[in-house]
Amino acid sequence: MGRRKSSIWIAFVTGVTLMGASACGGGGSDKASGDAKASAKPSASASPSPTKPAGPPMLLETITPQTGTTVGVAMPISVIFTNPVAAKARATVEKHMKVSASQSVVGAWHWMGDRRADWRPKTYWPSGTTVKIDADMTGVSNGNGRYGVHNYTHTFKIGDDVRADVSVTGHTMKVTRNGAPVRTLSINAGSAEYPTWDGTMAVIDKQEKVHMTSCSVGISCDKSSPNFYDLTLPWDIHLTQSGTYVHYSTGDPNPGSGSARGSHGCVHLSLSDAKWFYGQVKQGDPITITGSPRGKAPADNGYADFNLGWDQWLAGSASGEGTTATL
Questions:
Q1: Model pTM?
Q2: CA 163 to CA 173: how far, in whole Å?
């Protein structure tokens, strides 16, 4: 997208797993809050185990991925609590959130603030793996006077290893499936004023249409501004909570090195390529962007967990590295 009104898009999104400032967020917060509310209610597969709590209840607001879903190789297990979990209680809480898999995987929990904990493998999940999380929270303290009253179980599967590697300077996106090249697409990414995030971002979700406005992310609410826009655009792949998308832009219909208009942080595809790419990707597929001066997206800005090195990841874990139980 360029800087003209017709070629810059940012969205306000409802009904997604993570919510916050929306697409191409040049004006949004660089760091998404770890306490961000998820739009969907958690689905508890296990029936609650009623007990007399020792204090106010500690509940889970969401567990992602949802039960029965098939996700990509970079998808973390992300648990959001309704109330803060004290540092002194986190090791115990982690040990009561048991991760099992049909293939042995090394991984660890990491706290994104005091309400969100993610578990990710040291490297990507193997395709075809079935994964289960048993969050046995009944009677577990959050260290702040609250105690769990529910058990939760989610089971999901890792699908095909679909990846997209975006070169900002090369104006290309290379798509692979299970290690084999599929297509190379022409793209445009962020402008010098509004650069795109670098790094690896697992797909949060996708929508066939998203309403995008400059006002929703603090770029401009002035209709006379060249940076103002209020549009609904198709084939949108959501990458960050602050608002990065891969999508089609009516203001940049033929992206590539020849047009090089630049955007407010999103990655533009042509209409036909955007529709094709939309049909290829799923939640948790890694989109890796290189060549942008902005730097890597913070790990909690959506599901950018793999932007932390393993030592950095373990530094945010209370119980350390572990291996999945056998499923």
A1: 0.85
A2: 10
Q: How confident is the model at residue 305 (pLDDT cuts 50, 70, 90)?
A: very high
Q: What backbone torsions phi and psi does residue 306 show, to the nearest 5 degrees?
A: -75, 5
Alpha-carbon gap, residue 268 to 75, rounded angstroms: 23
Give the residue, 30 or 258, on which the prediction is more confident. Answer: 258
Task: Enumerate residues 6+ apart whose C-beta is below 8 A from 272.
Answer: none
State the Cα–Cα distance between residues 60 and 225, nearest whole angstrom.
43
Q: In which element (H, E) is residue 95 found?
A: helix 90-95
The torsion angles phi and psi of 269, rounded to 5 degrees, stand at -125, 160
Indicate whether 167 pLDDT > 80: yes
Q: Which residues pair with 99 in a beta bridge?
A: 133
Cβ-contact 54, 29 below 8 angstroms: no
Inter-CA distances, 129 with 105, 132, 157, 209, 260, Å: 10, 10, 6, 31, 40
Closest to 76 measured CA to CA, from 52, 110, 114, 48:
110
Residue-wise DSSP of 285-315: -EEEEES-TT-BPPTTTTB-GGGS-HHHHHH
Q: Tell me how far apart the alpha carbons of residues 54 and 36 are, in angstroms, rounded to a whole number.
A: 27
pLDDT in tens, 272-298: 999 999 999 999 999 999 999 999 999
